[in-house]
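Please check this one:

***
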Amino acid sequence: MEFTAKQIAELIGGQVEGDEHAAVSTFAKIEEGKEGAISFLSNPKYTHFLYETLSSVVLVNNDLQLEHKVKPTLIRVPNAYEAVAKLLQIYESMKPHKTGIDPLANVAPTATIGQDVYIGAFACIGDGAVVGDGSQIYPHAVVGDCVKIGQKAIIYPNVTIYQGCQIGNNVTLHAGSVIGADGFGFAPGTDGYDKIPQIGIVVIEDNVEIGANTCVDRSTMGATVIRKGVKLDNLIQVAHNCEVGENTVMSAQVGMAGSTKIGQWCMVGGQAGFAGHIQVGDKTFVGAQSGVISNIKGDVQLIGSPTMDPKHFFKSQAIFRRLPDMYKELADLKKQIEELKAKH
């Protein structure tokens, strides 16, 4: 597919600066630009590439001031990063949409399959499962008994959804993710640990995206809930009876212990960890590798383990680096005091 700068500007509400007939058929990073490609510039650190790139069209912010002439046609927009995201979404939506059930798929007779659904080879759809209109179940995915999947969901290869779980509309589950495995519930006994049956489910609301090899455990009772608009990266662990609030995002390797509740519009950095049975308020920012061990009111920034205000954290780190010298000074002072005592 080929589009002109004018057509693209109309799609994203931009202003063309240069040849409005410049045509593009692919995307490229600005530093790797080539003829026929569209690139974008949002980070000022990459501005010098604008004068070198071979891309035919570049999306730039309205406030960009040119130091000298550029070769590509520019499309000025309020936010170049948001504009390219919109274009990529449009591009993705134009890709051919698979439909039909592969003859090698295993679909239970009691399952309900909507219209325009794709089910790939060796996928398994269990008894009483429901797959909504336009959803895509890729090869080797397992949809357990009585699972409900909404419309236009994408279930990539090797995803496993255990029995009874509920998946909303426009949900994307990436390869290898596991939804509804047992929560980690064991009671210590005289001869070892007795398993506590996990009889709850997982509920994933609309417009959620879950990364590869991420696990969301079913609840002991009730439901583990991922609210609408949540985005989870790869390799995340959400334990039993947790709740992740609307539009919260988490980077890779975050871990949540059981019964923790995280509010709306939170941002969590990679490898952060949450203790069990705590509540984190809305709009909380948790830095990478942070350890959250108690309730957080919300609308705060936290870093460190245990977490603290970033200003206090960096001051503490500055002192921590000086500890060897401070220890030596303390030892010298102690020695001097002992010598003074000996003289008296």
Q: What stands out?
A: The chain is about 15% helix and 30% strand. The mean pLDDT is 95. The longest strand covers residues 37-41. The helical segments are 5-12, 80-93, 310-343.
